[in-house]
Amino acid sequence: MMAPRRGHKWFAAWYDRMCARAAYLGPVRRELAGGATGRVLEVGCGTGANFEYYPPEAQVVATEPDPYMLARARRRARESGRRLALVQAVAENLPFSDASFDVVVATLVFCSVDDPGRALAEVTRVLRPGGELRFFEHVRYDGGLLALAQDAVAPIWSWFGAGCHPNRDLTRLLAEAGLEVVRLERSKPLPPLPPMCLARPHVLGVARVP
């Protein structure tokens, strides 16, 4: 069994402040969480920035491995008055039964997990047949100098960014996990300024279990 990763206290504080200021992510979060119905699992909920966007009728369970992120998420859940179940767990080892969720939501998660292939396999396992993964991620650029730069900086980027990788091929990973992509579009939530200019493109999408 994989243990929850060690926490990143400074990163949790920075991420929370960034989310509080990031009005440009509001529409993305509204689209992902606002369209989630039934029994919903949010994988890697971070500090809980999506919580306010879930429909009142959604039955939401959220996981987060980082204890500092999770503490902030618990506070945000209490402040929102929403009924949410929060569990400390890594995405690669979800403590839930097979086919137990209608929807999984993930916002900037698969760039940061230790093993994205295993994490997506777990997502596939806990989704019911026909269930959907609603995701927003930054991915490797389609070749050229930017892609080479992403590859070059990935080790140090990951060290400073609490495990984040700027060069993961999400489309390939989704296919390998047996998920069918039914929607995939590019999104531009961040200004193209250093160093965040390397964390692009961003994609918003939906994938389903056949």
- % residues in beta strands: 15-25%
Number of domains: 1
Question: Which homologous superfamily in CATH is the superfamily?
Answer: Vaccinia Virus protein VP39
Q: How would a crystallographer describe the biggest sheet?
A: 7 strands, mixed
Which CATH architecture is right? Answer: 3-Layer(aba) Sandwich
Q: Using DSSP, what is the number of strands?
A: 7
Shape: globular
Q: What do the pLDDT scores average to?
A: 82
Biggest sheet strand line-up? 3-2-1-4-5-7-6
Helical residue percent?
Answer: 25-40%
Count of helices? 6
Quickly give the structural class. alpha/beta
Elements, N to C (H/E): HHEEHEEHEHHEE
The radius of gyration over CA amounts to 16 Å
CATH topology: Rossmann fold
CATH class: Alpha Beta
Distance between the termini: 28 Å
Spans where pLDDT lies below 50 across 5 or more residues: none
